[in-house]
Amino acid sequence: MARKLFSLSSDFGVGTPGIGIMRSVILEMCSGAEIIDLWHGIPGFEITEGAWTIESVAQLPVGYHVCVVDPGVGTERRGIIIKTKRGDYLIGPDNGLLIPATRMLGGIVKVVEITNEKFMRKPVCPVFHGRDVFAPAAAWLSKGARIEQFGQEIDPKKLVKAPYEEGSVSNGTVSGEVIHVNHFGSVAINIINDEFAKSGIKYKDDIEIDTSVKRINTKFLKAFGEVTKGEVIVIPDDCGRIEIAVNQGRFDEKFGVKVGDKITIKKSL
Amino acid sequence: MARKLFSLSSDFGVGTPGIGIMRSVILEMCSGAEIIDLWHGIPGFEITEGAWTIESVAQLPVGYHVCVVDPGVGTERRGIIIKTKRGDYLIGPDNGLLIPATRMLGGIVKVVEITNEKFMRKPVCPVFHGRDVFAPAAAWLSKGARIEQFGQEIDPKKLVKAPYEEGSVSNGTVSGEVIHVNHFGSVAINIINDEFAKSGIKYKDDIEIDTSVKRINTKFLKAFGEVTKGEVIVIPDDCGRIEIAVNQGRFDEKFGVKVGDKITIKKSL
Amino acid sequence: MARKLFSLSSDFGVGTPGIGIMRSVILEMCSGAEIIDLWHGIPGFEITEGAWTIESVAQLPVGYHVCVVDPGVGTERRGIIIKTKRGDYLIGPDNGLLIPATRMLGGIVKVVEITNEKFMRKPVCPVFHGRDVFAPAAAWLSKGARIEQFGQEIDPKKLVKAPYEEGSVSNGTVSGEVIHVNHFGSVAINIINDEFAKSGIKYKDDIEIDTSVKRINTKFLKAFGEVTKGEVIVIPDDCGRIEIAVNQGRFDEKFGVKVGDKITIKKSL
To answer: Which residues of A touch B136 (CB under 8 A)?
Structure first.
């Protein structure tokens, strides 16, 4: 990228005024910025969905990624900057939100708490750190401020834990949980495609999905067009995770599945 | 335009992550790009609504227009580039989606199937050709790649048919179908204003609308303010088509009308 | 800002096609423009919510701000440009929509009616002045056109009145009305923080909210994290106004409150 790339994600609601305001804070400091809205439809206060969202920065060019799902804003919870191995900076609250994305970006290089008021927009409003702390931090970093200047380093082990770990894979069985329901009602689970492959389940294999409530027999495939309308399908999604869907229908509603639900996928005997 | 203009449309849902990801693919290749989101709220898999959406590119400067409503992604359906007489490139699946817009852009100059992997983002994900095939094709075209380099030419007559043709107009009668319901519940029909004029129906004429279910007596007017709140009105819309609406109300809900319904408008005797 | 800043707001619906079309009108005339979508989810035809929205331009850099909530489009209602003391230009219909923002921008310097067709996109569609009159006016102003060139000056006192005035504050009591319900169901009232302070109500004071229907005992605080989930809270919001909310819940639904409702806040005895 010739221009600096920023991404913004939040639970503010798609297209709501706070987004344009955060955007203008960055543009005012960094006039040539390219700012991408990744997703602002993260359900309110849902750290799991937020963490899933920021995993997608791995599909963007290296940049400055601000994410705000922040029920603790204005309290003692810390604001942090994480530098990742790929070279990105993740900026947001220390509530677990930013951790899963670091796994997709090669891991954590350094974390600091944001305490240096020099890098904040004043006065700092206790209900909008996105505008007054996180967006300015991203802009300052892009202009050459060093991460050490923002505050004390934090041991990554002392950060608030991620809202989900990776699911488990054994021979013929995959166990995970739902971490996102998309616009079409399809669900993503906490199993990346490369891990799934270790289960030995292969393209076109018969499989059984267990949602705790219901068992569904289907196949592991690659594209929606391989089944007829209304059929259940398990595929590698476009973000590197395993997706379960109903072709041209809503898996979430049909089977009463929501974020946090346990899912097991087994190779059929 | 001093900078290259791109537009993106899809049924991904307004403001969802895939949009930002497609945007970044273009920006990474073409740093000075201006990328406009035309509409991402096209109802899922609805080719008719999608085709109506892309007609609006006629109101944008000449550019590179990517549209993704693509229930057949990952199957044998073809990905195509259409060059139009106005100079635009339309990029998306060969499922009829792109055809109506070509009528608004002076017609088709050339069509090719996209098969040259050199112009794709690798690996190509079978469920996200918007990111891996269509957005990169748009960026490459803007950088000077010639349409012939992407694949074999296709005879426009052999493309999948448009989801709608233009309605018919005779003396005093206009017959069409609903091709879009907008945010306010007003409907657009497949009759352009210039064709409607051939019916002899003029400004302020009394007319009768027949929705198959209901007959409504009203007038052909120009602006909502010409009727009181709650009244039905037929007007030329802002995109060149005939619109039927309830002033400050929802025509679709009041009369149970949806995309695909037949509509007849007659001059009252 | 090195580049010219524009903002767009409307009741068109977030992410709908008309927004991209207005954006392209500005970009075509002013290639280096930075265009921010402030909010397009203003409820249809709601002047009060629209006026609240444009108050937020005070948080953006000085710029050209187009707002379209315009039930009278195509009738005799005037299109206007307001120059504010801060240096911004507000462009939209003369229906009261633009007035409250001027109070946040230091007041009105000059108002003109837009009548000079030289600055319009032709033909002017009677249902889309946003595209054909207001967006082009913003672009022309940014290119150096003087406000006097657009039409006759209007005495600010002769503009259509604002949809709300500021609420009243006396010792220990604040009386106002709801002017906005946000994405989370929290409400903003027509009392700015500096005025509220004159009531003598201080941080952590016990207060009573009277919504006409219900009385609620709570405290005046600063951040959501100061109360537990589900508790009512009154705080200064991020835009300079007083906000009433339920922590991680919807105040509007819980207490049946909507835009226009009277609200009184009293210091508890």
So the answer is: none
Which pLDDT does position A75 carry in this prediction? 81
Q: Which sequence spans correspond to the domains of chain B? A: 5-158, 168-267
List the subunits that have 3+ CB pairs under 8 angstroms with C.
Answer: A, B
Q: Which amino acid is residue A8, in one-letter code?
A: L
C-beta of residue B82 within 8 angstroms of C-beta of residue B108? yes
ipTM for this model: 0.94
Tokens of B100: 């109506």
Q: Which CATH superfamily is domain B168-267 in?
A: Bacterial fluorinating enzyme like (2.40.30.90)
Q: For residue range A33-52, list pLDDT tens digits in order.
A: 999 999 999 999 999 999 99
Q: What is the distance between the alpha carbons of residues C264 and B5, in angstroms, rounded to a whole number?
A: 51
DSSP C171-193: TTEEEEEEEEE-TTS-EEEEEEH
* DSSP of A19-41: HHHHHHHHHHH-TT-EEEEEES-
Instruction: With CA atoms as reference, report the closest residue to A224 among B96, B71, B92.
Output: B71
In this structure, the number of other CB atoms found within 10 A of the CB of residue B165 comes to 13
Q: Using CB atoms, which residue from A37, A184, A224 is nearest to B20? A: A37
Dist. CA C267–CA C269, nearest whole Å? 6
pTM: 0.95
For the beta carbon of residue C149, count every other beta carbon within 10 angstroms. 12
CB contact under 8 A, A37 and B24: no
Q: How far apart are CA C246 and CA B120, in angstroms?
A: 49
A→B contacts (Cβ < 8 Å), by residue, are: 1-3, 5, 7, 14-15, 34, 36-41, 53, 56, 59-61, 182-184, 222-226, 235-238, 243, 248
Which residues are CB-neighbours of B195 under 8 A, at least 6 positions away? B166, B167, B169, B174
Hey, do B5-158 and B168-267 end up sharing a CATH topology, with the first three levels equal?
Answer: no
pLDDT of residue B72: 85
Beta bridge partners of B108: B84
Residue type, C62: V
**CATH number of the C5-158 domain:** 3.40.50.10790
Q: Tell me the C-alpha distance between A55 and A240, whole Å.
A: 10
CB A8 within 8 A of CB A38: yes
pLDDT tens-digit map of B173-226: 999 999 999 999 999 999 999 999 999 999 999 999 999 889 999 999 999 989
The rounded mean pLDDT for chain A is 96
Q: C231: which 2 tokens?
A: 């508790």
Give per-10-residue mean pLDDT for chain C (269 aa).
Answer: 91 97 96 95 96 97 97 89 98 98 97 98 94 98 98 98 96 96 96 95 96 93 92 94 96 96 95
